[in-house]
Amino acid sequence: MDDIANHKALICVAETGSLGGASEQLGKSKVMISRAIKTLEDELGFRLLDRNAKGSKLTAKGSAYVETCRPVIQQVDSALNAMALNKGQFICDTDDQQIPLKLSSPNTFGSIVLSEVIADFQKAHSHYRLELVTDEQFQDIFDHKLDISIRAHLSSDSIHDNLISRPLIKLPFFLCCTPEYLTRYLSKTVTSANSMIAERDVISDNIVRIKNVSIDDWFAQTPFVAWSYLGQHESVMVDSESQRKVTPANVTFISNNSISCRNYLMASEGFAFLPLHVIRQALNEGKLIIVTLEPIKFEVDLRITYMNAQGRQSATNRFVEFLMQHSAITSLRQEIQSLYIKLKI
């Protein structure tokens, strides 16, 4: 990290109160943040932070130093942004120049969400040529010559020092089935281990709570449509925090494509455990409903990773900021929060 980046790291630690908070906000590993602070301390000859198990707190000298360097860094940022904006304007005015951007994302997220964002981005920036590679497997930015990678399960501590990793969205999974199948299931008066009759509690048009049936009983009694990419044909993780897994007793269909699982589910018997963005349209159209049995929450943390480019108006950063603020992302976040409120989780 250069001198400006080191000072930005210090200011961010001061504002968030921890190396971890600065790591998440800046998209850099805690090792990099710690190294930046140590470099400044070595150059200045005094400690900037007091570190303990509860977090990091500025020393008296550190606090005074932050107050003096904060406005300077803000001025530098403004100057860099103005210069990048000026450069970007000249690029926009050059009709015969195209700027290539290569992105990678999971299959369904790329097909359902990202393609819409890319189309809108190119309407506003016609001089960009974007290539989207969709694959469920992780693709290394350097090996595959990617500008941007959107992947799950990558913390800011697991990436290369020259990369930035920012949280994009947490995608929840839900138990789902057709309304017709749920009616047939309940009409059979299926009982749990305690011999209690299953009961329906309608939460909203597309959410139904089933009482007196546990998740284990449900997976043991009903046909299951398995997304094999997550190994659901063998076991299904239903809660992120507790790492709880259940085993489906009657797998009737297996596919490595979640859209295929959804389409099969709508035309057949049984239930599935799929991400919201895959079943979202079917929920809104009344073709599928969410079934909740216990207060569980399983989420996939989707992150956007890219090279540490200079300037907010650089090609990569311009697309990243566009993506972060696009309605396809913001509306999905809002819908997720609304569902969590209804489910009381």
Please tell me about this protein's structure.
Strands 3, 4, 5, 6, 7, 8, 9, 12, 13, 14 and 15 form an 11-stranded mixed β-sheet that branches. The protein starts with a helix and ends with a helix. The model is unreliable at 189-196 (pLDDT under 50). The chain has 11 helices and 15 strands. It is an alpha/beta fold and 345 residues long.
Features:
transcription; alpha/beta; 15 strands; 345 residues; LysR_subst-bd; transcription regulation; 11-stranded mixed beta sheet; globular; LysR_HTH_N; 11 helices
pLDDT averaged over residues: 83
Binned strand content: 25-35%
Distance between the termini: 40 Å
Rough outline: globular
Backbone CA Rg: 24 Å
Unreliable stretches: 189-196
Q: What is the string of SSEs from the N terminus onward?
A: HHHEEHEHEEEHEEHEEEEHEHEEHH
Bin the helical content: 40-55%
The count of helical stretches stands at 11
The total count of strands amounts to: 15
Oligomer: single chain
Major sheet attributes? 11 strands, mixed
